[in-house]
Amino acid sequence: MSRKKLIAGNWKMNKNSAEAVALVAELVAVAGKQTDVEVVVCPPFTALEGVAAKLEGAEIRLGAQNMHPEKSGAYTGEISAEMLRALHATHVILGHSERRTYFGETDAFINKKTLAALKAELRPILCVGETLAEREGNQTLKVVQTQIEAGLDGVTKEQAAQLVIAYEPVWAIGTGKVATTAQAQEVHAFIRGLLVRLFGESVAGKIRILYGGSMKPSNAPELLAQPDIDGGLIGGASLEARSFLELITAAAAAK
Ligand code: PEP
Q: How far, in Å, from the CA of 223 to the mean position of ligand 1?
């Protein structure tokens, strides 16, 4: 089953709105018309509106980095799926390890967000991955299985084709340490098997599984050539147009 590669940039808490608009303008100028690779940028909330305006008419999608499961109400500091949709966002990163670690997000809370995002027709990019201690304790597959099964509880077969999964070993995020292609492919194939069990062969074959964790132009071609690695969720290397554009090129070459 051939899946279009997806390259998503997670800008995290970087770039004020003017800087974000300047970066996306560079991306649009070079890659705004290419359709070989699906491209998503996820700026901070404060830059979503400005970036959305720059993306009008371009083949680059807008994503958010988080959301709250409720539609509206007394949740100071939070943003809903409906608010993101109103800004023409199409994707939302959920369950990033930084949210799990620094903000105490549990699988149950991430599951609520996943269901709310799908209901609002936002595509979740659900992040899963093990810590170094878990890998060293041979717990990787068990941890990933729990995060996937709990995170996707209640998702229907019809909704599942909209999902994107990001396998991000926590020890590889922002550290410069990248998983070997064999380590990454092993977990991606395991996730594909879980998705087959949950949603059947045909739906599981459509779900993109991204690798995230220090992906950069030098290591991307080998990772992207693996049969179950359908793209990348990119942190550091998405903050400069040049490296992000090189990653889009690498994904196009790997298709
Ligand atoms: C991320 O935070 O999703 C990520 C993959 O970061 P980096 O590319 O910087 O490791």
A: 15
Cβ-based neighbour number of residue 255 at 10 Å: 13
Q: Hey, whose CA ends up nearest to atom 4 of ligand 1?
A: 235
User: Three-state SS for 221?
Assistant: helix
- pLDDT per residue as tens digits for the range 183-199: 999 999 999 999 999 99
Q: How far apart are CA 6 and CA 188, in angstroms?
A: 15
The count of domains in the chain is 1
Residue with tokens 């995290």: 12
Beta-bridge partner residues of 233: 8, 212
Q: How many Å apart are CA 41 and CA 64, to the nearest integer?
A: 8
- 10 Å CB burial of residue 148 (0-12, 13-18, 19+) is buried
In a domain, 1, yes or no: no
Which of 96, 105, 130, 134 does the annotation list as catalytic? 96
Q: How far does residue 234's CA lie from ligand 1's centre (Å)? A: 5
CB 36 within 8 A of CB 253: no
**Is there an atom of ligand 1 within 6 Å of 232 CB?**
no
Q: Which amino acid is at 249?
A: T
CATH number at residue 145: 3.20.20.70
Residue range of the domain that includes 137: 6-253
Is residue 174 included in any domain, yes or no?
yes
* pTM score, whole prediction: 0.97
The 10s digit of each residue's pLDDT in 147-158 is: 999 999 999 999
The answer to whether position 74 is within a domain reads yes
Residue 196, domain member (yes or no): yes
